Amino acid sequence: MNVTLAVKQYISKMVESSGPGMKVLLMDRETTSIVSVVYTQSEILQKEVYLFERIDSQNRDSMKHLKAICFLRPTKENVEHLIQELRRPKYSVYFIYFSNVISKSEIKALAEADEQEVVAEVQGRSWEPSMLSRCTQGLTSVLLALKKCPMIRYQLSSDMSKRLAESVKQIITKEYELFDFRKTEVPPLLLILDRSDDAITPLLNQWTYQAMVHELLGLNNNRIDLSRVPGISKDLREVVLSAENDEFYANNLYLNFGEIGTNIKNLMEDFQKKKPKGQQKLESISDMKAFVDNYPQFKKMSGTVSKHVTVVGELSRLVSERQLMEVSEVEQELACQNDHSNAQQSVRRLLHNPRLSELDAVRLVMLYALRYERHSSSILPSLMDELSRKGVSERHRRTVQSVVEYGGKRVRGSDLITPTDAVAITKQFFKGLKGVENVYTQHQPLLHDTLDQLIKGRLKDSQFPYLGASSLRDRPQDIIVFLIGGATYEEALTVYNLNRSSTGVRIVLGGSSIHNTKSFLEEVTLATGHSGDRPLGGGRHGTRH
């Protein structure tokens, strides 16, 4: 509980994150005092900080050979000083850190002032008060409805995770006496995670029925808008896909695209067998009764067949039109393999394909940027030039940097890309030896490993601490996972499979939204303060709950 040491470590992290080179530390009156308490001048000089300036000083010289590390309180005055600084930058690049949370509107104002694109990083991602309240209410409503009073673990690397954990705990504690919580031998566990720890999963094309529908058509409250499908009939312009009321969908939502095609064919053949014959004779009361009894079921089946044939047909058309099989193979290579030479060649080859959509082009470059962020032979600048030559707008090209700001190596609390421990390396080695059954489904989200470690009792307290003094001694039985920044249907599939394979464990997944790629990029844009001129790739958004 050494506050001085904690502050010193925070400032050290700021300085080290800017990389090698001469630096200036740009502060306000209060943060100047904070730094002077925890660091001597000789100590800070050893970290290549050669100049100390105040943000409100009017007499500073332009020194383009210096990197600026800004450590400021998030006051209106400091934000305004910083806006003026970015409009006429005196240093080559700016790394901006605030001593407390800053609003998204202020981050947006800073982004708009950065016309010369000198800002490399802004550490200001935080809760909007209304969103924190909404997530708290949603989580506590679920807990109260289930009559569960959980122990809470959160992602230590995410301040947002801790704040939500504290907010939920406060409500549960306050309302505890009003609700008849079920006393269980092993208390349920609420695990709060941050989407920024795994920015790769929502960028990938997924090949299960439910995930494909959401990615390519958009699934909003179980409804799909098919009005833009060529030649669509009036009664199929909007359809409902609900596992509660649609047996075919319930049985197929987690199956891959190839299996869906076979099952659609079987559904149609079954329909043909049961279809009432046009010349059917109704010679008796019993014949007429049988027809009346069977017709509603036939009508329901007819609607089910038409709906799924239309949906699968449109998915097939989009997969072919956008060449998504080829795109997805390269995405999986970027997400799962460690071969930079092949990866750069594959991405370049696809970027030269005139049929590659803008969304898919940007997505591939984002995956490359996340995967090879610090590779010594990175070709990211060259790939950005390729995007420009393809006609991708500047604002959309900037989303590549936004994704790195949101979920890059500096932000992640875990080693998303490269396994470091012996067990993980061995697993990857044997996976490579066995080969891959399906090249389009190699990737597993980080959530799989996190939950697997949790179930086995190996999830590190140092990375996912308990809120409060108590901790679980036994294996958890009821687990509620909440992803700040949104979950995906690939992660829903992971939870589904873990529920099937882990005896005695029940897992529920929730998030601030259910993302497809487009909605995730909107989330990234809001979180990093970079606004676009229109939603990338069109207007089919993610599902919010």
Automatic annotation (TrEMBL):
Alphabetical GO biological process terms: protein transport; vesicle-mediated transport
Query: Its topology with respect to the membrane?
Result: Peripheral membrane protein
Protein name in the entry = Vacuolar protein sorting-associated protein 45
Keyword Phosphoprotein (UniProt): yes
* General function of this protein: May play a role in vesicle-mediated protein trafficking from the Golgi stack through the trans-Golgi network.
Could you tell me which species this protein originates from?
Echeneis naucrates
Keywords of this entry: Endosome, Golgi apparatus, Membrane, Phosphoprotein, Protein transport, Transport
- Per the UniProt entry, the signal peptide is none
What domain of life does the UniProt record list for this protein's source? Eukaryota
* Localization (cell): Endosome membrane; Golgi apparatus membrane
The main location is membrane
The UniProt similarity line reads: Belongs to the STXBP/unc-18/SEC1 family.
PANTHER family registered for this protein in UniProt: VESICLE PROTEIN SORTING-ASSOCIATED
Q: Name one GO cellular component term.
A: Golgi membrane
